[in-house]
Amino acid sequence: MLKKYFLNYKRRNFSTASIWIKGGSNMDKIGKKGLNKILCSLLTRGCEGFDNFAFSEYIESHGAELNQEVFEDGISIGIKSLNEHFSKLFPLLDLIINKPILSEIEFQKVKKSSINLIKKDKENPFNLCFEKWRKIVYSNHPYAFNTIGNKNDVLKISYEDVLCEFKNFKKREKYLISNNSIIDGENLEKLDKKFLNEKSALRNYDLDPSKRFDCINNYSNQTIIMIGNQTCSRRSSEYLPLKVLESYLSYGMSAALFKLFREKNGISYDLGVFYPIRSGNAPFLVYLSVSNKNALFAFELLTTLWKNLLLNPLIDSEISLAKEKLKGSCLLSNQSLDDILQRKIQLISYGLSPIKEIDLNTKIDEISSLEIFKITRKYFSKPFLSISGNKKICLEINNMWMKNF
């Protein structure tokens, strides 16, 4: 069943429509990680009335864009064109999800492309370190795996596997959103508000430090450090307090991480927080990259910062600035219509009605320092650490880790 929504977001000379299919790489079968990534790529390689080349030519001849992406919780397929061409292109979305060709020849091409993408992904030490971190945090949960899968699994995926998965795909809930009223959907602005107060239960919370640590040896002059834990669903009342904490740690040059590692000590190449929207317990991860000679000092600084978050609530000035930066970030994310529509349809698939700006700001303003402090202690008292560095540095950081965490 396809649920349709219309958002009259200002008058523009182009139209965009996006379909969110509930269930992404979390639907991959055991031993077939990467199956939904292959299926998604294959869907956009021809449909009823168009082979692969005719399909691409038709879209390009109208100056349109077709995008698709697989997430852990869903699949996004969207099309954008000038208003004058939209009525000709919009029907393609229905053909893509209901009547794709699913050519075996194209399947072989997509499968090869996935394997190449996995190989390229492995060349990045950040990706390898993150993969280690996910494994110890999520174990066998779908969030422990990359959406593109792994090489051994992808090699075993057959054309018949894809056809079988497409039968499953057709049964999944689907949501369509557009700024063009041609879709004849429900007016999004008239939906009832839903502020859910779901609480998240932690997994792996009481593991000893040795089970919350992993490392991978590299032979570069770079050490990568990732620390954090799984937290809550986007449906949780704890989501926004964690967004304020993310803002405090990583938004702009006034952020705690920037001031500590770059402004005061000048020792970090790259640093920040990864806290994506998820329907399940989302990861909250602090990451940084330093030279080998600064790795131990950087970990000492990170340990001090982490302990301070667990021992002392943020002061009023820190909370106030973090809230204002978060509001500014929300405004910035509203500049792209494509991003707005995808975010809103994703929230709807999670059972949430998108929050208007004024209501969101009110919710942010209501968050207290004590609330953030309690949530910080709940999720980060027993963090998980992943390191990518040379063997000696990994060993020394592991010893420091065992003493402090």
Describe the structure.
The chain is an alpha/beta fold. It folds into two domains: 2-190, Metalloenzyme, LuxS/M16 peptidase-like (Cytochrome Bc1 Complex, Chain A, domain 1), CATH 3.30.830.10; 209-404, Cytochrome Bc1 Complex, Chain A, domain 1, CATH 3.30.830. The protein is 46% helix and 18% strand. The chain has helices at residues 35-43, 52-61, 83-89, 91-98, 104-122, 125-138, 151-156, 159-171, 239-250, 256-263, 295-311, 316-332, 337-349, 357-365, 369-380, 391-404; strands at residues 2-6, 14-22, 65-70, 74-82, 174-178, 186-187, 213-217, 222-230, 268-274, 283-291, 384-389. A six-stranded mixed β-sheet has the order 3-4-2-5-1-6, with helices on both faces. A hairpin with an 8-residue loop joins strand 9 and strand 10. Helix 11 crosses helix 15 and helix 12 packs antiparallel against helix 14 (357-365). The longest helix is centred in the first third of the chain and has 19 residues, at 104-122. It starts with a strand and ends with a helix. 40% of the residues are buried.
